[in-house]
Amino acid sequence: MATSPRSVDTISLCSTVSSCPDRNGFYGGFQRTEKPKEPLSKAQIIAREKKWLYMIDNWSLYMSKNYKKIRDRCRKGIPKSVRPRAWFYLSGAYLLKKKNPTVYKELLEQPGNPHVIEEIKKDKHRQFPFHEMFLDEDKVGQIELFNVLKAYSIYNPKVGFCQAQAPIAAFLLMHLPAEDAFWVFVSVCDVYLEDYFITGLEVLQNDAGILEGLLKKTCPPAYRHLQKHKVEPLLYMTDWFLCAMTRTLPWETLLRVWDCFLAEGIRVIFKVALVIIGASLNQHKVRKQCNGLCETLEVLRSPPEHVLEEDFIINNIQRLNLRVEDFQIEHTRQKNRRAKQKAMQEAAAATTASTSHGSAVSSSSSGAGGSNGYRL
After folding, report:
1. Is the pLDDT score of 296 beyond 90?
2. Coil, helix or strand for 152?
3. Angle at CA of residue 339, ends 335 and 340, nearest 5°
């Protein structure tokens, strides 16, 4: 998986570290917030909290009759005090937990696959190393992160454990109690990012094609530039999608994106990616300086700071001229393209096998040595 400069925090302690954490618990790293966010008035905060609490208390009614209200309030940003509970409901985790009240505890009591357990142990210390929850092994963050990842590997052995899951689980643990975080994590992995973590990454490859098609519609100059320099989407979007932007965006931006992501699904990650690519490569002078694959990837992996700011990302993903139908059209197009490719590969393989078999028979009949035959 490609590693962007912005995700270097997860593998080395090379940033300036403060002696006290910011309001989100970060001692350092690019997600540390130095300047406090301009607050809403106390009256505005209370009013928003009341609206959300009433909505959560009547959740089934809103989901069935007034989902647009939920979506619109998520786009405005969920109040910090309500966000954990809101995410728990938005993701459907509350239903999973209600249906399986003892499952998390039972999973923790099971030993799990030894190989998978060892992989989780190797990876848990790499997640948000500048955050107060994950500073060292005996901190509650690393302990709970291990538990959540282990429990999921047993809950869904088809997936087991993928390194890209770890930052998502750690991110959720910063907001929710471990058991609630586990069920949100299950929902994200099994529904929002369904089949993303299965060996082969076929779904991610399909979504890479969809992203390319949508970019052609939303920002033709950037699309043409990437095509010209043969910059394949998987070279820059893998980390964005597999980690659901948790290793890419500044903290306040990430929270707002996840408010929308849990309400609207993977389309939000597509839109964020399109905004980053478009804003980074839309200017002619920038494209002119990026006269090759490496230079282009450098820009995409480390976009200008203003491009990743909360207001810029949120405002622009809502301005993108994309309908649900656009996603469906691209999905169908990519599905058909990949089916055609697969059929051609199978036909080619069948032809090769037939030719090889015929040659082997011919060689055997004429007494030719094996060194003159086809090498498979």
Report:
1. yes
2. helix
3. 120
Domain spans in the chain, listed from the N-terminal domain onward: 46-75, 82-190, 200-325
CA distances 98 to 37, 58, 101, 152, 169, Å, are: 36, 17, 6, 17, 20
Q: What is the pLDDT of residues 318-339, one digit of tens each?
A: 999 899 999 999 999 988 888 8
Query: SS3 of 334, please?
Result: helix
| Three-state SS at 131 | strand
- Note the maximum CA span of the chain: 93
pTM, rounded to two decimals: 0.87
Burial class (CB in 10 A: 0-12, 13-18, 19+), 331: middle
Within the chain, residue ranges assigned H as helices are: 42-57, 59-65, 67-76, 83-90, 93-99, 103-109, 114-123, 140-155, 165-173, 178-187, 202-218, 220-228, 234-242, 251-264, 267-281, 284-289, 293-301, 310-319, 324-366
**CATH code reported for the domain at 200-325:** 1.10.472.80
How many Cβ atoms from other residues are within 10 Å of residue 166's Cβ?
26
Dist CA 250 CA 370 (whole Å): 61
Reduced to 3 states (helix: H, G, I; strand: E, B; else coil), residue 28 is strand
Exposure string of 124-162, with b = 16+ CB inside 10 Å and e = fewer, is bbbbbbbbbbbbeeeeebbebbbbbbbbbbbbeeebbbb
Is domain 82-190 annotated with CATH 3.30.450.20? no
d(CA 193, CA 114): 25
Tell me which residue of 236, 201, 194 sits closest to 215, measured CA to CA: 236
Give 200 or 164, the one with higher predicted confidence.
164
Alpha-carbon span 232 to 180, nearest angstrom = 37
17 phi, psi to nearest 5 deg: -110, 130
pLDDT tens column, 241-260: 999 999 999 999 999 999 99
Sign of CA dihedral 176, 177, 183, 188: positive
Tell me if residue 26 falls in helix, strand or coil. Answer: strand
The one-letter code for the residue type at 258 is W
Q: How many residues does the chain have?
A: 376
Do 82-190 and 200-325 agree at the fold level?
Answer: no
